[in-house]
Amino acid sequence: MKKLVLFMLALPLVIFIYATCTLYILHKSRGLEFSYENGGTDLSFISSDLGWSAEENMMEGKNYITILNDFESYKLNQNDSSIMLFRTKPKKKFWKWAWWFDNYDSPKWKVPYLTPEELKQLRKEAVKQK
């Protein structure tokens, strides 16, 4: 009877420790912040004229909708409707942990991806125009 009581007391502690360690390993294996409210990985965005950029951060309340509103305000302030929004973080490979937890149906993943090479090219063009 004594062993059963000890087992019943220890079992929740063991489960808690296991779950905590598993979540910690998942978090560290990605190297990125993750939030279910955010639909997965926090993404960063940049405008096509390189004058505006933002990054999702649920701790500061910056989700995709907030960023989209900020970007539209920026376009209005610049009085240029041709400015486009680009995503600067790629989708993960399917063998990475993060791939299995991201919601790729979310609108934020539909924003065109700007590769590092394309970003360098945009920066070179921006310097030439100045």
Summarize model confidence as the mean pLDDT.
80
In the residues, how many domains can be counted?
1
The first-to-last residue Cα distance is 82 Å
Structural class: mainly alpha
Give the tags.
130 residues; mainly alpha
Overall description:
The protein has 130 residues and is mainly alpha-helical. It has one domain. Helix content is 48%, strand content 11%. It has 4 helices and 5 strands, in the order H-E-E-E-E-H-E-H-H. The strands form 2 sheets. Strands 4-3-5 form a 3-stranded antiparallel beta sheet, with no helix packed on it. The protein has a two-stranded antiparallel ribbon with strand order 1-2. It is elongated, with a radius of gyration of 21 Å.
Describe the secondary structure blueprint for this structure.
Blueprint: H1 2-30, E1 34-35, E2 40-41, E3 44-47, E4 53-55, H2 64-78, E5 85-87, H3 97-101, H4 116-129
Antiparallel strand pairs: 1-2, 3-4, 3-5
Short description:
This protein is mainly alpha-helical and 130 residues long. Helix content is 48%, strand content 11%. The protein is built from four helices and five strands.
